[in-house]
Specification:
four-stranded mixed sheet; Creatine Amidinohydrolase; three-stranded antiparallel sheet; alpha+beta; 472 residues; 16 helices; 12% strand; Creatine Amidinohydrolase, Chain A, domain 1
């Protein structure tokens, strides 16, 4: 049995399990850690990342494990050790060590799980959440007698009421982070900050994106951290989720780096955009200043009771004003935002929840991101907003506005045509900004009882500070 045990006190996880059990009442709950996936043959595996709900309650990353909460007790079921484990993997923690580290009542063999399920009333009465991992989901169906579709998309539509009760209880717990969660998010920030500073310092004309990525991710590896998601390090900032790193950095390029560290499952998510040469051009600086002001205006709104959708619209309004000032749009900024014209340049939402997942609880779909009674807009741009809840102390959200010149959007006649026809947008005006592809600025922000706390504030984003960090 391989296992990564938590660095935090077992009491952190005990309090979370107690709160979950109180919310569920007499309903037993079963959470699965997930499987370790083979890259091509069984002994060559991908790094294991435990399911976030399991990790939240147990803190331990143990493949093929299951956590049963029932009758005032918590039992952890782990796979039996193989005789040759010590040869290949070295000493592994025994049941007593795992019990002390996690605070569970007992650690038992995974082989005993079917009998424990039957003793707790059977699979039909047990609350669980379908894993995003198809191997684990198949295992869940077999053990619990469920028939979830094999191609399940993120979300909880179609789940049994008992499972929906568990989903809602987990959402209520994880929306507002406790001190244990915030401690690890803050600790991860140190690595993420070092990574972005290293990326700025490594950027020079003639180097390649993968060289900058290597410099950044090295800072995480040096701190025994990993990335919270696939790093985006690209001169093509208009590609929102760029996943290749082969482009050479040129003198007049902007480099967009979206990279966040992960520590014991807890994530950061930060984007910075900087000039490869160490100096913004006048047009780059003009659009960068608009994005920065949009971000600052949005961050200032991260306060208890504020609807996150309104944070997004405030960011969009600042962007619209700036785009009008630069001649990229025409009209009243409020009317432009109402019509969605700003989304020609800012097509995504202003951010999302952050926690154990970089898009926290997105496996539960809009049930987690949207408050009851709220639904996604059908308007282009606004429809991509991942979060529409009222903010509360303890929530951590990203604030990440941007301006992008995306050919696939700006040449989409059905989308652009009405704005061209009424003079709101003239594609010819884009020529002046030919040295800008995409600019995004993103920070992780904690909602407190008073002013917002920018957890990632140490990473430079003021233009002069960014230029100094690049030049050295």
């Amino acid at each position: 049995m391989s296992a990564q045990l938590p660095s935090q006190p077992a009491s952190v996880f005990g309090r979370r399990r107690t709160a979950l059990a109180a919310a569920l009442g007499d309903t037993p709950a079963l959470l699965f850690s997930g499987s370790q996936r083979a890259r091509n043959y069984p002994a060559n595996v991908f790094p294991f990342r435990a399911d976030s709900h399991f990790l939240y309650l147990a803190g331990a990353a143990i493949p093929e494990a299951a956590l049963l909460i029932h009758g005032g007790r918590t039992e952890l079921f782990v796979p039996p050790k193989d005789d040759d484990d010590p040869l290949w993997h070295g000493p592994t923690p025994g049941p007593e060590h795992v019990t002390r580290a996690t605070g569970v009542d007992a650690v038992r063999s995974r082989q005993e799980l079917p009998a424990a399920i039957a003793a707790a009333g059977g699979g039909a009465s047990m609350a669980t959440l379908p894993s995003a991992d198809p191997i684990t989901r198949f295992d869940q169906c077999r053990l619990l007698g469920r028939a979830w579709p094999g191609d399940r998309t993120p979300g909880v539509d179609g789940l049994d009421p008992v499972d929906l009760g568990l989903a809602d209880a987990m959402i209520a717990l994880r929306l507002r982070h406790d001190e244990g969660a915030l401690e690890l998010i803050r600790r991860a920030v140190h690595g993420t900050t070092a990574a972005h500073l290293a990326g700025m310092a490594a950027s020079r004309p003639g180097r390649f994106e993968h060289e900058v990525r290597a410099a950044m991710e090295r800072e995480l590896l040096a701190r025994d951290m990993t990335t919270a998601y696939g790093s985006i390090v690209t001169v093509h900032g208009e590609i929102l989720h760029a996943t290749t790193y082969g482009n050479e950095l040129r003198e007049h390029d902007l480099l967009l780096a979206d990279l966040g560290g992960e520590l014991e499952g807890w994530a950061n998510d930060v984007t910075r955009t900087w000039p490869v040469s160490g100096k913004f051009s006048p047009t780059q600086r003009a659009l960068y200043d608009i994005v920065l002001q949009s971000q600052l205006d949005a961050i200032a709104m991260v306060r208890p009771g504020v609807r996150y959708r309104d944070v997004h619209l405030a960011a969009a309004l600042t962007l619209a004003r700036g785009l009008v000032d630069e001649g990229l749009l025409r009209g009243d900024p409020h009317a432009l935002v109402e019509r969605g014209a700003h989304a020609l340049f800012f097509p995504h939402g202003v951010g999302h929840l952050l926690g154990l997942d970089v898009h926290d609880m997105e496996d539960l779909g809009d049930r987690a991101g949207y408050a009851p009674g709220r639904a996604r807009s059908e308007q282009f741009g606004l429809g991509y907003l991942r979060l529409d809840r009222d903010l509360a102390p303890g929530m951590v959200v990203t604030i990440e506005p941007g301006i992008y010149l995306v050919p696939a959007i700006l040449q989409r006649q059905a989308l652009v045509g009405p704005f061209v026809a009424d003079g709101t947008f003239d594609p010819a005006r884009l020529e002046r900004f030919s040295d800008v592809r995409g600019i995004r600025i993103e920070d992780d922000v904690l909602c407190t009882t008073t002013n917002p706390e920018v957890l990632t504030a140490a990473i430079p984003k003021e233009p002069q500070a960014v230029e100094i960090a690049v030049v050295g």
